[in-house]
């Protein structure tokens, strides 16, 4: 006869077993370019959270999931970024390709640099170099915008793809071809996402 105490123990063991199984899922991510060649040194993000290990020389990243992410991103500063929805599989292939050069209106403010090697980060690159852009530590604001909801972060675009602030911060100054700052009517194409202005980076 199964007592109430035994039932509780069995139920607890079942939940613990299921929990352990869900937390021990290993995944392997292979990052490739448009030519199907492995991309080494790619940054992997799980739900926009940067992982500590990059892809190896074979373009492979392995990790053990504590919980299943909704999205997985692969980012390389010289190529671009690709975000996919996680399908629950253990082996995943992500292909990233370099975006085309941007075509912007005549009123945009674009600045290019040939001495980008002197900067330690994208924030150093932008600090005091582009009119209308204010950089404080790792916070960027575009002059002329007032916060309504407490957030004044502009929209970041890398090679025609919207990226998070964390990915934007990993862009190497040496890889930058141009930076374009949009504000006012020029941001209307981005809707509410461009409410605080837009910073567009094109890499070489």
**Fraction in beta strands:** 25-35%
- Radius of gyration using CA atoms only: 22 Å
Instruction: Sketch the topology as an H/E string, one letter per element.
Output: HEEEEEEEEHEEEEHEE
Low-confidence stretches: 99-114
| Average pLDDT taken over every residue | 77
Helix content: 10-25%
Task: Describe the overall structure.
A hairpin with a 2-residue loop joins strand 2 (43-46) and strand 3 (49-50). The model is unreliable at 99-114 (pLDDT under 50). The chain has three helices and 14 strands. With 204 residues, it is of the alpha+beta class. 14% of the residues lie in helices and 33% in strands. It has helices at residues 4-23, 122-126, 165-168, and strands spanning 25-32, 43-46, 49-50, 60-65, 71-76, 80-85, 91-95, 109-111, 133-136, 139-142, 155-158, 161-163, 176-182, 198-203. The protein starts with a helix and ends with a strand. The strands form four sheets. The protein has a five-stranded mixed beta sheet with strand order 8-13-14-11-12. A four-stranded antiparallel beta sheet has the order 3-2-5-6, with no helix packed on it. It has a three-stranded mixed beta sheet with strand order 4-1-7. The chain is globular and about 60 Å long.
Sum up the structure in keywords.
3 helices; 14 strands; 204 residues; 14% helix; 4-stranded antiparallel β-sheet; alpha+beta; 5-stranded mixed β-sheet
Gist?
By secondary structure, this protein is α+β, with helices and mostly antiparallel strands. The protein has three helices and 14 strands. The longest helix has 20 residues, at 4-23.
